[in-house]
Specification:
homodimer; 309 residues; alpha/beta; Rossmann fold; 13 helices
Chain lengths: 309, 309
């Protein structure tokens, strides 16, 4: 059994590689829900949906999120009302949020709704939200010291504004979703996907019990650096690390992950930092980590599973 | 100033006639919200939207509700999840519900959200929900004695099942929306549109204060029968009246309206029942009431305004 800690696009690509080499029934992905948001009354879970759509082969290949062949009639019509359109929800994607919202209103948990959604897309792996309870990632802006939701910063401000703090509202009272701790406890390998350490993996670590469970499996836990040559392939992992005083490098990632992961996979481009990573207490594996196509993603998954052997 | 009590399709057609002969700024429509429903977390107000879309010239001419040229990507995608699709919401129509839901969540009243929506569609008449408070029309089924929401019966069961009672949850505690009572008090003419007496006009009468305000203006109040030759042109007004022990005829309508309206306009087809209507205490005006086109709707509006002169 393989358990993966997952954010959005990077994790989705890694998982699409993993399912090529491991029967999906043997995979559990524990997914960040800190950047979930309620828009127009609809509960949007971006990371859960990105993983689902990617594994279903339905994701928009140009963006890495949302659905391929999407239409935008609802958003275009919202413009008439000068409604909230900064977070674009396609017509087909809306159905996912409508279904999730309806099920939550009926008393289903987020994990139950997620299981129904993934089943509807024909996925055999298990996708678990990190928690059924709301945890909201909030961003404090350096310039104004004001705090906004993750999506307001990430999408609304295109993550272009400097950040002084990241906090996780509700985390202290959140419980791991059923199965999360067991999936970590019993996994043959735990993989920390190449996701943003601060705002994708960070929220998971704030759910009580999760970080202890991980630490207990440190020798079976391998992480993949989302930072390559000091830059994030996609998204703000590098600038966010810098803003919060972390070195935006594989060494900075190692410092964040060393207490619960024993191996860090870094890209070929960072082979020169191998010794520095190991100085942080993680074994360093150098491999191609840019998942340009399906074989590359499968190969990275193979390297990750081999790394703890 | 003209104040109209309005349900959905019939009222929308009448109002589209009225705006041809009266400056829309001088018209207030007080609209039924008893058949509002929350679906997928979205607040749907069918009668408000039917009136809005009709007056904006954007209504689907084939159905009399919804938007012309609508697309259905969200509903089709909901099928994947076996989601709730018995109440069809078009992609463009969804934007209206999303905007309304968002504004209510932000603390706006339904009246405020409605004013914003009608302004966005360029309407100059004033559309008021009967109340900013939730009033829910419920239908008790004769066969099972179970109670379901209006829309579950009207749309879900295609109003084909016999009804033993209609009730209005929340009505006793509801307050008329700001401006509703004043609009009735100060109108030169109050028009009860050709809407379902039980489930379109009925909910308005249950809002405390509304029926007294109407009764005080009885001499200026003219109603248009939605029943023609014993049948509703559209919808279940006739069967519902029968189910609840009312005669499904203009005479039955007169009995329901006589205490607050002094004139009943009946269709040419019912000219033979004129004396029977007058025996119920309403002056009877015979006129063509089938609004087959815009001129016919304008002519009916003209007759209604003339009837109280």
């Amino acid at each position: 059994m393989i358990t993966c800690l997952a954010g959005g696009v990077g994790a989705a690509k890694f998982l699409s590689g993993l399912v090529q080499i491991v029967p999906p029934e043997e995979i559990t992905a524990v997914v960040n829900t800190g950047d979930d948001i309620v828009l127009h009354g609809l509960r949007v879970s971006p990371d859960l949906d990105t993983v689902t759509y990617t594994l279903a082969g339905a994701v928009n290949p140009d963006t890495g999120w949302g659905l391929a062949g999407e239409s935008w009639a609802a958003m275009e019509s919202l413009d008439r009302y000068s409604g909230q359109t900064w977070f674009r929800l396609g017509d087909r994607d809306l159905a996912t949020h409508m279904y999730r919202t309806q099920r939550l209103a009926e008393g289903a948990t987020l994990a139950e709704a997620t299981a129904e959604i993934t089943r509807a897309w024909g996925l055999a792996l298990r996708l678990l939200p990190m928690s059924n309870d709301r945890v909201e990632t909030n961003i404090t802006l350096r310039a104004t010291d004001s705090t906004i939701s993750f999506q307001e910063w990430f999408v609304g401000q295109r993550h272009a504004t400097a950040v002084s703090a990241v906090s996780f509202e509700g985390a202290a009272a959140a419980r791991p979703a059923p199965g999360v701790l067991e999936a970590i406890d019993t996994a043959d390998v735990v993989v920390v996907c190449p996701s943003n350490p601060i705002v994708s993996i960070g929220p998971l670590l704030e759910v009580p019990g999760l970080s202890d469970a991980l630490a207990a499996r440190r020798d079976r836990c391998v992480a993949i650096s989302p930072i390559i040559a000091g830059k994030a392939l996609k998204g703000p992992a590098d600038t966010l690390m810098t803003d919060l005083g972390h070195e935006p490098s594989v060494v900075g990632v190692a410092r964040l992950y060393a207490k619960f992961a024993s191996v860090l996979i870094v890209d070929d481009a960072d082979s020169g930092l191998s010794a520095a990573v190991e100085a942080e207490g993680m074994r360093c594996v150098v491999a191609p980590t840019v998942m340009t196509d399906a074989p590359a993603a499968a190969e990275l998954a193979r390297r990750a599973l081999a790394a703890t052997a």
